[in-house]
Amino acid sequence: MGTSFLFPILITLIIFFTLTSSATLTTDQDALLAFKKATIDTNGVLSNNWLTNTSICDWAGVSCGLKHHRVTALNLSNSALHGNLSPYLGNLTFLQSLDISSNNFAGVLPTELSKLHRLKHVNVASNNFSGEIPRGILTNMSALEEINLRFNKLSGELPSDICNNTPKLNRFYLRENQIYGKIPTSIYKCSEMEELSLSENQFNGNIPTEIGNLSMLTLLSIYDNHLQGGIPKEIGHLTSLNTMALSGNNLTALVL
Ligand SMILES: *[C@@H]1O[C@H](CO)[C@@H](O)[C@H](O)[C@H]1NC(C)=O
Ligand SMILES: *[C@@H]1O[C@H](CO)[C@@H](O)[C@H](O)[C@H]1NC(C)=O
Ligand SMILES: *[C@@H]1O[C@H](CO)[C@@H](O)[C@H](O)[C@H]1NC(C)=O
Ligand SMILES: *[C@@H]1O[C@H](CO)[C@@H](O)[C@H](O)[C@H]1NC(C)=O
Ligand SMILES: *[C@@H]1O[C@H](CO)[C@@H](O)[C@H](O)[C@H]1NC(C)=O
Ligand SMILES: *[C@@H]1O[C@H](CO)[C@@H](O)[C@H](O)[C@H]1NC(C)=O
Ligand SMILES: *[C@@H]1O[C@H](CO)[C@@H](O)[C@H](O)[C@H]1NC(C)=O
């Protein structure tokens, strides 16, 4: 009998791994092509450059991992793009950085983005996004370090379990949107937070005392909201704080 029966098994395994690795490469290409299709490309950044006769890793704004050749970063900031953001982006499993800031994308941020568990940097600032922030982005993205959503038209409330599984989030910019409701107390779970900007929204209720637990905070900007009540004395524990903006609320001078 010998070991000749191993041969077909080996061939099967080789075929399997070849197929799965090319299948994942195709997944990244399909995702980028779906993104291209949903995007209105005024300056031809995508239509002149994202062509299927070249590798996706050579496409403008696309970076790939050196070993696995999967897409790790997408940077198309300030590229005169509009249209909706394709949910297929959620299939770019290896994506660590997404920067589509300073375009004119509209519609919602697809919930599929929450599937990107390796995402560290998200910058969708200065677009025209509306609707709610997909809950999973703020509660579920274990690698997330920075999220910049400022200058959009996002609405709804922040999830009450924000920061539950985003322990590394240290920069959170939400300035100039239409978010309402309370600042969630679970914000204290983002214990590495350094810059928190929630200004020019419609937050109401009190400033949660838990803000005082964000011991690494250097910037706290919450001006122009509808916050009320006293300023929590716990903020006095924040020894690294160098900028604090509270104006344009209904805060009493009383320190609680
Ligand atoms: C890819 O195709 C485009 C036209 O579709 C052509 O202009 C370009 O030269 C081709 N690039 C390569 C590397 O073959
Ligand atoms: C994206 O590219 C712009 C310049 O084209 C740069 O300023 C910005 O820092 C880049 N974003 C990221 C996340 O690297
Ligand atoms: C990618 O994402 C889309 C939309 O979210 C989905 O329909 C599709 O089945 C996904 N998978 C692949 C392999 O493209
Ligand atoms: C932003 O989107 C709204 C619809 O949500 C639309 O009415 C408005 O014209 C858009 N603004 C720009 C600058 O495209
Ligand atoms: C959080 O992640 C888990 C596991 O990937 C997933 O099942 C769940 O739907 C996600 N929750 C949200 C709100 O995205
Ligand atoms: C938050 O800070 C207060 C003191 O202001 C402290 O008593 C409390 O244990 C801290 N909570 C956490 C979860 O670190
Ligand atoms: C402050 O409170 C007053 C009275 O309750 C209200 O009329 C006003 O709109 C509030 N201002 C802000 C900025 O929330």
Automatic annotation (TrEMBL):
Q: Which family does it belong to?
A: Belongs to the polygalacturonase-inhibiting protein family.
Secretion signal, residue range per the UniProt entry: 1-22
Tell me which GO cellular component terms the UniProt record holds: membrane
Keyword field contains Cell inner membrane? no
Domain Leucine-rich repeat-containing N-terminal plant-type span(s) in chain numbering: 27-64
Q: Which named protein is this?
A: Leucine-rich repeat-containing N-terminal plant-type domain-containing protein
Q: Name one Pfam family in it.
A: LRR_1
Task: Report the locations given in the UniProt record.
Answer: Cell envelope; Membrane
Q: Which UniProt keywords apply?
A: Leucine-rich repeat, Membrane, Repeat, Signal
Repeat in keyword set: yes
* Top-level taxon of origin: Eukaryota
